[in-house]
Amino acid sequence: MARAGGRVAVAGVVSRVTGFARTLVLAAVLGAGVVGDAYNGANNLPNMVYELLLGSVFASAVVPLLARARRHGRKRSREFTQRLLLAALIALAVVTVVTVACAAPIVRVFVTDPGQRHLTVVFAYLLLPEIFFYGVTVLASAVLNVRDSFTAAAWAPVVNNVLVLVTCAVFVALPGPVILTPATMTTGQVATLGVGTLAGIAGQAAWTVAALRRTGFRWSWRVRPIPYTWRPVRRAVPLLGWLLGYALISQAGVAVTMRIAFDHHGVSVYTYADLLFQVPYGILAVSLLTVLMPRLSRSAAAGDRAAVLADLGRGARYLTVALIPMTVAMVLLGPIVCTLVFTGRVDPAGARLIGITIASSAFGLAPFALVMLQMRIFYACNDTRTPTLLNLTMVTVKITTIAVAATVLPDRAVVVMLSVAASLSYLAGAVAGHILLRRRYGLLGFSTVTGTFNRTAAATVIAGTGCLATVALLEHTRTGPVAGQLVTLGGGTLVGSIAFLAAAKMIGIPEIRTARALLTP
User: Fold this and answer.
1) What's the distance, Cα to Cα, between the start and end of the chain in Å?
2) Residue 63 contacts residue 381 (beta carbons within 8 Å)
């Protein structure tokens, strides 16, 4: 598991590095003003609609269903997979066509400014077809994961990032105004951004489909849509209602967040901060969760309660060791990173605001990963009701926090609170998820997780103290702004990393020793 997770993590590193480069280039090209908000807002719409109508069904139900089908033999698994894919592709095509037709009404829900609304609608028409390709990517990745093939799908986002970077290069080369506004952007500029971004998602889907073919999977064009595809769909019908309820609740939170972000001119700041928040999660947590999900599904299908709880504890320990130090690093170094990389690409005030947002919301990183692990336990057991109720708790906390912030705080503080509210909801979800798992399984054996947390926290405090002292010292001695920030960032990172590893060795954190031993050839 460690080796498979390590390979996924390597792909995750490349994916996040190229994604970070894409974010910086988009920020430099579009800024964090009206045009940047229109593009980022429109680019979020396919994610919202996809998650609302199909995303949770695919991500949460497909892997357990396919894992159970494999227990009945290769022939049965192949037929079930073919029929499920066909049913899903038909549904994706229908949803995509309907959503593109409704692009203008969807945008009107979020954008009030007429000029910005028109540009956002144009981008929405170009970007909403991403829904179909997102679904293809998730379906192909699910089949790959059930076949214990994890790495190929993990590289797919790199294809997307590279194509978007190429798109930005073409955009810069196009003739057009230097100062971008919704009124001055040319048709060629808008079309290049929209079509290029869509091509990135389509390329990502094509990569996963090609990876699936390399495993020996072949699509059977002789599969008849009706009534044969109804059999796997019928298996999913009992799960469907609660899954759609989960998605609807989630998107209520997203809709409130996007509306408040548009009203307070913070869509781009919130989007860039959220992308940076996702970097350590995508590298350190997704790799582990990707490998764990098929294992959990197989253990749950076999009724092996001990194996399920063992993987729960194992996942929680490794997530703790990976993400607690990253949380402190984001608090201490996040503002420096954002000031360094975003200044000159967005206005200085926007760069500082992104850094403040990252530092203020970093506490939600570990709870976010833990609640995602808890969700996978419930879904592996074909329980879609409990995650929906859990999500209701999280979204209630999020919307309440945002509503209070929007009422009493100024614009800049409200933009920061959008991310803080999300982190508070993750914390509430992790606590509620632990209580619900205790109620179902009894004692979870989390005494070892508590011990790991205490040891990791102690090592992190030592590392954070060293990092903070180094940053404070270098802040007073640096000369040039850019070079000084690079030196401060490098020095703080180096001292903090060395201090953490030394403290971990002195205190004794078994998970670090185990991972190092397993990953060593």
Assistant:
1) 14
2) no
Q: Which two three-digit tokens encode residue 72?
A: 């009945």
Exposure of 173 in the CB half-sphere (CA atoms within 13 A): 7
The string over 236-249, giving b where at least 16 C-beta atoms fall within 10 Å of a residue's C-beta and e elsewhere, is beebeebbbbbbbb
Alpha-carbon distance 358 to 367, whole Å? Answer: 15
How many Å apart are CA 145 and CA 286, to the nearest integer? 13
DSSP β-bridge partners for residue 346: 343
Helix (H) / strand (E) element for 164: namely helix 151-173
- Yes or no: say if 516 and 459 are a contact pair by the CB < 8 Å rule: no
pTM over the 0.85 mark: no
Select from 370, 516, 517 the least CA-distant residue to 453. Answer: 370
DSSP 281: I
Contact 61, 384 (CB under 8 A): yes
Both tokens of residue 374? 């808890």
Give me the helix-helix angle, 411-441 and 305-342, nearest 10°: 170
426 Cβ neighbours under 8 A, 6+ residues apart = 364, 367, 368, 371, 394
Is residue 177 within a helix (H) or strand (E), and if so which, with residue range?
Answer: none
Q: How many CA atoms lie within 13 A of 509 on its CB side?
A: 27
Angle at 437 between CA 435 and CA 440, to 5 degrees: 110
Task: For 5-74, give the DSSP string.
Answer: HHHHHHHHHHHHHHHHHHHHHHHHHHTTSHHHHHHHHHHHHHHHHHIIIIIHHHHHHHHHHHHHHHTT-H
- CA–CA separation, 294 and 62 (whole Å): 11
Distances (CA, A) of 200 to 39, 129, 193, 281, 505: 15, 12, 11, 22, 43
Residue that is written with structure tokens 């500029």 in the block: 189
The token pair at 301 is 């299908």
Return the C-alpha torsion angle 119, 18, 362, 56, nearest 10: 70
pLDDT in tens, 346-381: 777 888 888 899 999 999 999 999 998 888 888 877
For residues 457 and 71, give the distance between their C-alpha atoms in angstroms, rounded to a whole number.
42
Q: How far apart are CA 393 and CA 237, in angstroms?
A: 24
Give the pLDDT confidence of 452-505 residue by residue, as tens digits: 899 999 999 999 999 999 888 887 765 556 677 788 888 888 999 999 989 988
Report how far residue 135's alpha carbon sits from residue 190's, in angstroms, rounded to the nearest whole number. Answer: 25
If pLDDT is split at 50, 70 and 90, which confidence band does 5 have? low
Secondary structure class of 113 (helix, strand, coil): coil
Number of other residues whose CB lies within 10 A of the CB of residue 210: 12
Q: What share of the chain is helix, strand, coil (3-state, %, to 5)?
A: 85, 0, 15
Reading the block at residue 317, the tokens are 């320990």
The answer to whether 99 and 49 are in contact (CB under 8 A) is yes
